[in-house]
Amino acid sequence: SQTIHQWPATLVQPVGSPLSLECTVEGTSNPNLYWYRQAAGRGLQLLFYSVGIGQISSEVPQNLSASRPQDRQFILSSKKLLLSDSGFYLCAWSPRVEETQYFGPGTRLLVL
Amino acid sequence: GEDVEQSLFLSVREGDSSVINCTYTDSSSTYLYWYKQEPGAGLQLLTYIFSNMDMKQDQRLTVLLNKKDKHLSLRIADTQTGDSAIYFCAYDTGRRALTFGSGTRLQVQP
């Protein structure tokens, strides 16, 4: 069966510091991968999606970036965090041939 | 307006039925989804319905789809305290991404 992992689970970072969140999927190959952000009390906003290694599509302009160095690894990064980057970051995957998405446990980021 | 609209809050008593509603604007969706998010956790896929269906039942869950009115609902029978969570409606547009509503917080009172 497939599983999706995210780490860290919780992160507190100062403004201006760098960020690296990791997401890995097990039990499948060639998945579509997604990063979403959920701000407090709000819905989900799609940040990035990837259909293959090195292929990243950005949905909204921001100071975040994403990379996919391996088939089942998706990384969300920032060189300098802003206060507005605080939120709950969710990684998701879907099989190639359908759109049903399965979510990881999320990373809660607090920027102070 | 928003692509997907949901009411923000619903409160029911334990044992009653809950109905969570969602309206959407894009008529090209292939699948429509309901996800559940418990406090501090990721999203759990509850159920989905293919756009050429009008009803799907899965144990205590019933999904109704009115394509003409672009209205989707989730009915939870015999609601339990463990059903307390935020429920998100979502649809795909074939762009390899889902569009989510802002979520409905369901509170179940004992």
Protein architecture, described:
The complex is a heterodimer of chains A (112) and B (110). Chain A has 112 residues and is mainly β. Helices cover 0% and strands 58% of the residues of chain A. Chain A is built from no helices and eleven strands. In chain A, strands 2, 4, 5, 6, 9, 10 and 11 form a seven-stranded mixed β-sheet that branches. In chain A, strands 1-3-8-7 form a four-stranded antiparallel β-sheet, with no helix packed on it. The mean pLDDT of chain A is 90. Chain B is mainly β. Chain B is built from no helices and eleven strands. In chain B, the strands form two sheets. In chain B, strands 2, 4, 5, 9, 10 and 11 form a six-stranded mixed β-sheet that branches. Chain B has a five-stranded antiparallel β-sheet with strand order 1-3-8-7-6, with no helix packed on it. The N and C termini of chain B lie far apart (36 Å). The model of chain B has no long low-confidence stretch (mean pLDDT 90). Chains A and B meet through strand 5, strand 9 and strand 10 of A and strand 4 and strand 5 of B.
Shape of chain A: globular
What is the averaged pLDDT score of chain B?
90
Rg of chain A (C-alpha, Å): 13 Å
For the terminal residues of chain A, how far apart are their CA atoms?
38 Å
Average pLDDT of chain A, rounded to a whole number, is: 90
The tally of helices of chain B reads: 0
| Beta-strand share of residues of chain B | over 45%
Poorly predicted segments of chain B: none
